[in-house]
């Protein structure tokens, strides 16, 4: 921990893919302590602005930024914009991601490349772009949003499971690399969460899913955001290299 540690409310957090679902909940959780919040989105301009509006109601300073995380040049332009606003992140939440449902035999090479570019390459490029400042100030938090499927795998979700398994390995390795610099790296691997990522499931499939979960229900996005917030706290500095899965007892 740095010698001149800023209070949590004076820190800046960047959440990728924050226009909806878990990302939006994370943005609002940090805004509730009046942290400087950067809401990243790709195309969902109106949705991102709505999340920003809710964050502003907490009295937080808020900035929205758009970038295709598959493109390094766009990430570097995003970084320049944040620097010009004096909002370089102390905390990076790599949340942006896409899912894929279907048999592996039906997966095209283009689908593989697209999903891996968003779920893995985007995380890599964002982390690389923003970790230098964390290292120089000897404080930083990198929190990667993974999935329970990255731990256990799922039939008909081989693509998604593979990408999230990569997120977990990235997390564990980078944590060892950055620990001497006071920067922690952890992953949150949620189980089934009540967001649009499950919209491909019919209502009876949702009920069957809930029956499989010992807690008997889906998670609420706020239950995931509270864990992300905890990992970002200065007093969580001894927690690093961990993949924590809030899943209602589904996978243990």
TrEMBL record:
Keyword Lyase among record annotations: no
Keywords, ordered alphabetically: Oxidoreductase
EC code: 1.1.1.100
Domain Ketoreductase, first and last residues per copy: 11-191
Domain of life: Bacteria
GO MF annotations, alphabetized: 3-oxoacyl-[acyl-carrier-protein] reductase (NADPH) activity
Family annotation (SMART domains): PKS_KR (SM00822)
Family annotation (PANTHER family): 3-OXOACYL-(ACYL-CARRIER-PROTEIN) REDUCTASE, 3-OXOACYL-[ACYL-CARRIER-PROTEIN] REDUCTASE FABG
Entry's family note: Belongs to the short-chain dehydrogenases/reductases (SDR) family.
Protein known as: 3-oxoacyl-[acyl-carrier protein] reductase
Source organism of this protein record: Paenibacillus lactis
């Amino acid at each position: 921990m740095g010698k001149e540690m800023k209070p949590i409310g004076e820190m800046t957090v960047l959440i990728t893919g924050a226009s909806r679902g878990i990302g939006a909940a994370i943005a609002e959780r940090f805004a509730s302590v009046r942290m400087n919040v950067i809401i990243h989105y790709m195309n969902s301009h109106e949705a991102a602005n709505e999340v920003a509006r809710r964050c502003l109601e907490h009295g937080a300073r808020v900035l929205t930024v758009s970038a295709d995380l598959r493109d390094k040049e766009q990430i570097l332009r995003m970084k320049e914009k944040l620097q010009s606003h004096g909002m370089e992140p102390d905390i990076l939440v790599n949340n942006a991601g896409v899912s894929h449902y279907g048999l592996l035999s039906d997966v095209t090479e283009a689908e593989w490349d697209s999903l891996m570019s968003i779920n893995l390459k985007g995380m890599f490029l964002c982390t690389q772009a923003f970790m230098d400042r964390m290292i120089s100030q000897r404080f930083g938090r990198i929190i990667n949003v993974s999935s329970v499927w990255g731990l256990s795998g799922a039939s008909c979700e081989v693509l998604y499971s593979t990408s999230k398994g990569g997120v977990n390995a990235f997390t564990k390795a980078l944590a060892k690399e950055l620990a001497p610099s006071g920067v922690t790296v952890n992953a949150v691997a949620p189980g089934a969460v009540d967001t649009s990522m499950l919209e491909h499931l019919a209502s009876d499939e949702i009920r069957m899913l809930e029956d499989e979960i010992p807690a008997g229900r889906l998670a609420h996005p706020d239950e995931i955001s509270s864990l992300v917030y905890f990992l970002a706290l200065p007093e969580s500095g001894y927690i690093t290299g961990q993949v924590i899965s809030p899943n209602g007892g589904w996978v243990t």
